[in-house]
Amino acid sequence: METRLHLKPGQNGTKQLVQKYGERLVCVRYRYDSDAGLRHKTVELIEETVPWRPASSREQHLMQRAVEEPVLLKIDYQERELRERVRQAGGRWQPAERAWVLPYGVVVDLELTARIVGDI
Asked: Could you say which of 39, 74, 107, 113 has the lowest number of CB atoms within 10 Å?
């Protein structure tokens, strides 16, 4: 199937659909099926609008990490159970950085991404 036209609301070919769907209309597409000899008119609609905030640059950076990339975690000395969980998952204490080192994928699995303080 081939799309030949992609129209924004208000352009010729969309006016009746703007009346029908109003502000919810995002675009109208005309798609052609050469095998069946058919033209399809499709619409893209906004179904729901909810509050959202873009990821901060730090969060964006965290999302782009490789699973095996080592990261530094801050775990306080008093958090014995958490330190033991990290140790059992393969974590290593780095005295110079005063932080634990784990692969990023393991950090995600342990749900500790908020404790990342840096890279190695």
From this structure: 39
